Amino acid sequence: MTAPPPLVELRVRSPRAAADAVAAHLWATGAQGIEERDLPDAPGDVLQVVWVADPFDVAAFERTLRAQVPAVQVHAALAPNTWGVAQVTPLGRAFAVGPPGAAPPPARQLIALTPGVGFGHDGQHPTTALAFAALEAALDHPAADPTARTLLDVGTGAGLLGLLGAARGLTVHAVDIDSTARATARANAALNGWPLQVSAAWPTAPVDLVVANIRADVLLGLLPRLMTTVAPNGRLILAGYRAPHQPTLDAHTPGWARGARTELDGWICETLRRP
Ligand SMILES: C[S@@+](CC[C@H](N)C(=O)[O-])C[C@H]1O[C@@H](n2cnc3c(N)ncnc32)[C@H](O)[C@@H]1O
Q1: Dist CA 171 CA 167 (whole Å)
Q2: How many whole angstroms from 200 Cα to the centroid of ligand 1?
Q3: Residue having the nearest C-alpha atom to atom 11 of ligand 1
Q4: Domain made up of 7-78: CATH architecture
C-alpha cells in the first residue's frame, strides 16, 4: 500500500451570503468535501475548509475566486500528514476509526480508513459523527426493524457510513458524484475486507435504509429521489444541514414518521420512516 499524496488545506472566509458562490468555486477546483464552519466572532461570515492535492496554485485560485467574490480571504497550509500515525478515534457506540492495523479501544470494532483522505476520513466532522450515530442506532435496534438488509449511502465520501452498514452485514450501495471519493471508498472497503458496491449510479430496487450526509441545497434537490428509493416502511437518515433548513425538509416529507432528531454544533440529523 502506498501513502496518499500530501494535501493542502484551504481555508476560505467569505460573507455568508457569498458562501454558495465560494462553494461552487471550491467544488470546481476539485475539492473532495467541504467543511463549513461558523465564526462565533463574525456571524455574518462563514469559513469553508477543503483539502486539495499538493502541489496547488493558491495564488491563481485566490485570483479567480476574488474576481467573483471580492471579500474572500484565503489561507493555505500543508495539511498534517497523518499517514502512519496510529491515531484511533472512538466513533458511535461500538466503533473506532483509525489507520489499518491500529488497535481499537476495548469493546470497539476498528473501521480502518486511509488516513487524511476524503471527507469523513476520521469521523470527526459533526455531520459525520451524527449520521454515524443515527445509522448505528437504526441498525442496532433489530427489534424495531428486523428486515433491514440493504443500505444506500448517498454521498459516501470516504465510505465511512457505508462501511458501518457492511460491518453489520448489510448489502451496501455507496454512491458519490466525485470520482476521487469513490476511489477512496473502494480503497477503504478493501482495507477492511468488507464488500461495498461503490458507484456513481443509484440502485434501481428499493432500499431498506438510506443515509445521506450532504450539504443542505444538494440534499433538498435529492430529496424526491431519496424518498422514492426508500422501501415502504424503510428509513431515511438525513444529515448535513442546519436548523434553519428543518422546516423546509419537514414540508417536503409529508406523511413520513419523524424518528430521532439529534444536533451537534448547530448541525442536525434526522431519521424518518416511510409510510
Ligand atoms: C459532507 S460529505 C459526506 C461524506 C460521508 N458520507 C460522511 O458522512 O462523512 C458529502 C459527499 O457527498 C458527495 N456529493 C455531493 N453531491 C452529491 C450528489 N448530488 N450525489 C451524490 N454525491 C454527492 C460529495 O462528493 C461528498 O463526498
Answers
A1: 10
A2: 11
A3: 155
A4: 2-Layer Sandwich (3.30)
